[in-house]
Amino acid sequence: xxxxxxxxxxxxxxxxxxxxxxxxxxxxxxxxxxxxxxxxxxxxxxxxxxxxxxxxxxxxxxxxxxxxxxxxxxxxxxxxxxxxxxxxxxxxxxxxxxxxxxxxxxxxxxxxxxxxxxxxxxxxxxxxxxxxxxxxxxxxxxxxxxxxxxxxxxxxxxxxxxxxxxxxxxxxxxxxxxxxxxxxxxxxxxxxxxxxxxxxxxxxxxxxxxxxxxxxxxxxxxxxxxxxxxxxxxxxxxxxxxxxxxxxxxxxxxxxxxxxxxxxxxxxxxxxxxxxxxxxxxxxxxxxxxxxxxxxxxxxxxxxxxxxxxxxx
Length: 313
What we know:
The protein is an all-alpha fold and 313 residues long. The chain has a domain at 241-313.
């Protein structure tokens, strides 16, 4: 299975600062958080560093975030890794996940799947079940089991990890779980379960799941066939720039599936899909051009430019 298919293979990094409340010294972390939220990043870095050097794990994690994103300091993944590891070694789940992420990508100084797997495993051991940081780590751990990175390939364990993350509200994991149910990988094939998990992820605005749910409704897979519902989800995914959804939306307008036929609107979406690299869109674009006047083609191009925005032509 290629990583470009409907499976949402996304390695997620916990990149937000958490609410800090460890008294080292009193008020320091609150001041650092306030500076961060006010976009006073250099001051936030200064205050986080004071607390981090005193051994506070939340401050160490937060300083790692600052280095990873270049906020208040020059972006430096090696420095980010240094601070993430200090926090992770004290049991901070978000820091453990981010340490795993940097080992996975190699951005922290060297790619090492075994170390990535180790830190993702630590991340899911560290905090209360259901927290967002743990759900991100479970999703990443599921990816490692699915692809056999840093550990033996184990679809059953991948399903288990994705389910834990999805039940905590993680849309990436919910989409992946939907895909596995659709394919019958690691679980018995069950299209209703597949649609259920795609819907959960799509409801959170995850574009890959929106596209996948559109496909399920168009084909009547695990749900009653409903072209209008398919159109709704294709529209949501297309608005987020998903090329396949844009092509599907063009096809819906060309054929009048769930909507009145509109060849100019079809041309618009085929054009956007083609510009975004979906190979089948070029053929569709050429076919429909033969049915349009020059004025209609110009109108389709104008509509496409409005979707892309003035700076994305």
